[in-house]
Design brief:
This protein is mainly β and 552 residues long. Helices cover 3% and strands 46% of the residues. A hairpin with a 2-residue loop joins strand 29 and strand 30. The two termini are 27 Å apart.
Length: 552
């Protein structure tokens, strides 16, 4: 990865290059990801856009703008680099410009579960000092912190500024017209929680000159919009000032099917805040489960204005297959906001989130073709490894502490060590997000190793207890699955070659593992991918397809 590579010393890189040219190496060519969901087959992109705008595992989106340019960041948990960041001038087409944290020494995810780490970052631009801020939580790895940048496109962000006075999760910054600043976050309520899921929203004054919290914090929301009903998991709060009114927008109900977005209103940034009569302003929990092309779990929203002053909201949602499970993770959606008596309404209750939208945001600066990536609708993404660095579309599981891969002469080379996908460390796995319900990922795989315990292949990975893989050893073609921590070999075949094209494809809940050389060999039979779903595997991430070199 372009940014990541500069943090490895010349000695480490040289040592790794030697290792990659040794006999014990996995080689990958021609990685290809292809998505072909039915709902996007005939969309005219000139007159419509597709939801989600960032498909696949891009959860907890936050957005801000400076002039005509918008920036989005997402949660990354213990995947590395941390917090992917995108830019756009039209809110539909997005270019990934890097990551907020790309130095493996900045944070440590060693020993953490996949769904720990970076939760719900918020990005904000402060016009009073011409500075961008990202505030977030590193769960089980430090707590809440802020990083700053004058130019997000430069890739230069400050070291973390830790704010121990702010507990809990989901912190967000608000900069008022007079330059005053506040942090709002989710934390435990005052005293004992009355029920499971009872949380509160706290506010803190923040000094932008010293980057310190000042004074005492206070509670602005206890429980949710209807405390008498014991609402759960008030979180992901953001503050806006619209027509002189201060509005808290927050998620409520938990991140599953009962997820929703609500607002509260005040005449002062410090409160008191009153629930709005139009709540919830976004939810899909009341819709029939058997509807066509459902979007579920909607919430965790943020807002910006387009060139005409129209408000637009981004939010997370999930696209389940017919069983109600989803493997693609929580994704980033975009919808226009309707102002009702000066208050924002993202979607009327009872209406479905559309996957194809004909209304588009106004822009003064359309994104030129070739300046943005394919992140929505059906797309094919290929990599022939002709560049010396890995694409920023790839991600790793936990911090990359040593340079165990390189790219030379159109080949991704990966070394082996004692790690594997079921270990809580940094496996030798270069991953790409599953972004469709119907899709495939493939690569030409070559194993140059005589040891029988070396395995090179393709994997679909959710966490260290739930994944599937197809690959080659020195003697066999192997497919297997790890389901809730239990390994099950699906099929083995003797082979006389050390190079094959390997693929994993998904058709809703059914995954197929194949090998191709002079003919096609299916290495799984109607393998259910339910164990890759959030409902069965738990956590907050989505499935990753990727190239793997591991101990077998």
């Amino acid at each position: 990865m372009r940014i990541l590579m500069r943090y490895f010393s010349a000695s480490v890189v040289m040592a790794t290059m030697v290792a990659c040219n040794s006999t014990e190496v996995a080689k990958f060519d021609n990685f290809k990801y292809e998505g072909y969901d039915d709902v996007y087959t005939d969309v005219n992109r000139d007159s419509a856009y597709c939801n989600p705008i960032l498909s696949g595992y891009y959860p907890d989106p936050s957005i801000c703008q400076k002039g005509d340019t918008y920036y989005i960041v997402n949660s990354s948990f213990t995947h590395f680099p941390s917090m992917p960041i995108f830019k756009s001038t039209d809110l539909i087409h997005w270019e990934q410009i890097g990551y907020v944290i790309d130095d493996p020494a900045t944070l440590s995810y060693d020993g953490l579960q996949v769904s720990e780490g970076i939760f719900a970052p918020t990005i904000r631009y402060n016009p009073h000092n011409d500075t961008f801020y990202v505030i977030t939580t590193c769960v089980e790895c430090g707590g809440n912190f802020i990083v700053k940048s004058k130019d997000p496109e430069s890739g230069e962000w400050s070291e973390p500024i830790w704010i121990p006075e702010v507990g809990g999760i989901d912190p967000s910054l608000f900069f008022d017209d007079d330059g005053s600043a506040y942090i709002i976050n989710n934390d435990e309520p005052i005293g004992e929680a009355r029920y499971d899921g009872h949380r509160a929203l706290w506010m803190h004054r923040f000094d932008t000159k010293t980057d310190r919290v000042v004074g005492n914090a206070w509670v602005v929301v206890d429980g949710g919009i209807h405390p008498e009903e014991n609402p759960v998991w008030i979180e992901g709060p953001h503050i806006y000032k619209i027509d002189g009114k201060y509005i808290i927008m927050a998620a409520e109900g938990g991140t599953s099917v009962n997820h929703s977005e609500v607002i509260l209103v005040s005449d002062s940034p410090e409160g008191p805040y009153t629930p709005a009569p139009i709540n919830p302003i976004l939810t899909q929990r009341d819709l029939p489960a058997d509807r066509a092309n459902p979007v579920t779990c909607t919430g965790h929203a943020d807002m910006v204005q387009d060139a005409n002053g129209q408000w637009w909201s981004i939010f997370l949602g999930c696209r389940p297959y017919p069983k109600g499970y989803y493997n693609t993770g929580r994704e980033t959606f975009l919808l226009p906001v309707t102002m009702v008596d000066g208050l924002p309404l993202i979607l009327e209750q009872g209406k479905e989130v559309p996957l194809v939208m004909t209304q588009k945001p106004a822009t003064n600066k359309p994104m030129a073709e070739g300046t943005y990536g394919d992140f929505s609708g059906n797309f094919t993404w290929t990599d022939d490894f002709s560049k010396a660095e890995l694409s920023e579309r790839y991600l790793f599981v936990r911090n990359v502490r040593s340079k165990w891969y390189n790219v030379t002469e159109g080949t991704l080379n990966m070394t082996f060590d004692n790690t594997s996908l079921d270990s809580i460390c940094n496996p030798h796995f270069v991953a790409f997000r599953q972004s469709h319900l119907k899709c495939s990922a493939s690569a030409d795989v070559e194993l140059s190793a005589s040891s029988e315990d070396k395995f090179a292949g393709i994997a679909a990975f959710q966490n260290d207890r739930n994944f599937m893989a197809i690959g080659i050893t020195s003697k066999e073609l192997v497919s297997y699955a790890v389901i809730n921590g239990e390994k099950k070999v699906l099929k083995t075949l003797p082979i006389s070659t050390d190079k094959l094209n390997l693929s994993i494809s998904a058709d809703n809940d059914i995954y197929t593992l194949k090998a191709t050389n002079n003919g096609e060999v299916v290495m799984s039979e109607q393998l259910s991918g339910d164990f890759l779903s959030t409902d069965m595997a738990g956590g907050f991430v989505g499935t990753l397809f990727g190239m793997l070199a591991q101990k077998y």
